[in-house]
Amino acid sequence: MKLYLKNTKEKNKPECIRVQLNVMLCIPILFFFLWSSSASARVTQSTSAEGITLQFTLPELTVSETVRDNVRYHEAHYADCHFTAEPGNPKVPVTRLMLGIPATATIEAVDISAAPTESRSGVRLVPVSIFDVHESDSQHSASQRWVESGSAYQSNTGNPSYPGLPLARVIREGYIRSQRVIALALYPVQYSPKTRQLRLYSRFTVNIRFSYSRQSSVNSFQLRGSLSESGSSLTERLSLRGKLTTDNFLESEAFERALSHQLLNAEQAAHFRAPRPQVPAAPTLVSNNGNGNPRYKLFVGETGIYAVTAESLARDWGVELIGTNPERFRITQGNRDIPIYITGAEDRKFDPGDTIFFLGHKPRNPYSRWNIYWLTLHNDRVRTRVPQLTASPTDPTATQIPTFRSKVNFEEDHLTNNLEFVYSDNKHKWFEENDFWYWDGIKNGGDAAEMRLEFPLYDVAKSFDPSHISVELQGGTPVPHQILVSVNGVRIEVAEWNQQDTLTVERFLRTWNILKDDTRGELNVLSLARVDDNVDEDTTRYPYHVYLNRFSVEYTRLFRAVADELWFRSPTEDDTSRTQLPGGRKLQYKIEAFRDPGIHIFETDGTYLTARLRGFAIETDITRTGMYNALFQVPDTRKTQFIAVSDTALRQPESIEIVEPTDLATATHGADYVVITHPKFLAAAERLAGWRETSGGGGYRTKVVTTDDIYNTYGDGGVSPKAIKDFLTHAYQSWTPPAPTYVVLLGDGTYDFRGIDTEIHTEPPELDGYIPTHYIRTDSFGRTASDHWYVTISGHDEFTDMYIGRLSAATVSQADAIVNKILDYE
Length: 826
Ligand SMILES: [Ca+2]
Ligand SMILES: [Ca+2]
Ligand SMILES: [Ca+2]
Known about the structure:
By secondary structure, the protein is mainly beta.
């Protein structure tokens, strides 16, 4: 599949300035649970459907001295222990282990019987270090410090010891593929910071008891749990298991090996597995995938009225639709039908000059420069058409509307990447719910303590309705902010807020003439001035930042087109207007200042076109030569918005791609090793997969899939990490078992998916080899790349269900070199 892009040139890009994703950051999470099973030397277990009993014996504890930040501390450890990891709290040895449990069991209780056997005094345990991330000139670095600042050191803490009782806790629960698992932490060593005493529990018993819900319905996922409900023994259940589809429990050799190392009770737990849910079809968003016709993918960058002719489709994009019946055309976005208007459709023949009109919007997708619309052909007549409305100016008693309320939004997105402290209680949705692209800001006080931004407004009308301004600010630094907001030298407000929070300043302007009119050659100035007296003693750690995200101005405006386009609202649609309306009459609108008499007027609800106006008058402007006016009348009951646009202001999609149908979602595939590649690296991906199929390369079943095929099948066509995860989820659930074990992403990641920084991205990253990552928010590092999330598929947990890795290639030669190295090495 080829993407045709106008004005695409081959450019030589300096490789060194690419922003490489720091995938390292997610590794501690990834491999947190992949420890060795050597703990079993001191923990014995017995497992049944009713519960699990563990016997723990503490080996020899070693206490040694250490000096951190010039303070003498102690470190305590025993063989093969892990440590608690809360920054600022004592670093106490702990045993963590994993167990398999029945799919439908409820953990009724975790009982512990133990007796303290030993105390040691005069111990000052070292605290867990705190990491600080520094940023200067987009370079990140980190440093550590050791301070006793955690909750364990607060005098009002109820429990005097840390980590406190109980001695055993379930710390995580979830699924690794078909195996339900729990992670358990055992705390045989307790530390009291106040008395500086260690208390050791050298032997204890942990009893995990299960119960089962009587009502548990016998669906495929709970079937095995309901077997144990009858109190059947392990052997009975084993024999029953044979009656189920064994395919459902079939795991790859790699996972059987991993589980046997990860789970203390792996052998018994294997009998507890739950079948994978079976889904027949892919959760595809894009309709019309099944009828075998190609689909046409329209890339839209800006909001406006789009018009594509049969002739331009054929000439510019190779889309041959001349002669087809336009009644069959359909435009969709995601799973929504987009109303279209087609000229020359009455003869049921799409002739060269016939045109499809629709309202396109700029993308909201943070991963893409484009919004994707699909043009498809159906065998039946499609009814999502924009109706026509006669709007002839024939009623002499109609009320002339002189002005309207116009809300103009201003936003420019530039790249920022230092917002580690933006609060969120949802670490996964955080990235997509926040806007991380800002216009500009105030940085570090000094000369840049004020920011001035010029912006145009057109055809400002004299009015009693006050203008209104709304400014959205973002704190960039974890300190309090005070910013004086003014427009054209008139003070709006002193905005005060804290941290990396968002603040919206909203005010009515006292008089209409505060605003300046660009038609008279005057620009408005929005000014943000730092007025706080915070002096951060360490500005290298937290460079002072306040960002402007967006602002809007609502004002009373004359009906005059700007660059042959005007969006306006009917007075009834506008709550802030004081215009009094007569009842049951017609309203007359006259829009002036078009340079092109080929004028189109549409009604819209803001999202879709709701009607096309016909019968309106176009007249020459007698006072301004070369200008045209449009005159129309509609009933005053029409509460709506309008878009008037001439031929010269109609927009074209930035590109149109022909997408042939694939069997990605419809056929049953099966693979152990899946390569998800950017189309640019397809050849390298196929070479790697080809090697993996040979016995020397592992003898795996392989499948190579391009990101385009995934976005087009599992998403709306735009770049989407969610579509990649949905694809992997579908592969896990419906491909021929065992489900895929290994996933390779062949393509680089980037902070800047939309390629806003053109010094880094001379081409849009999505066309240039990039595969997005999922961003999560972590307490220690803020925004963190997490490919890990792609393979957390079974259950709602952070245990991965496939192994994932990324080959970060930015160019075809890099991709080839990486594959060559792998093949040479193996
Ligand atoms: Ca026609
Ligand atoms: Ca923004
Ligand atoms: Ca999982």
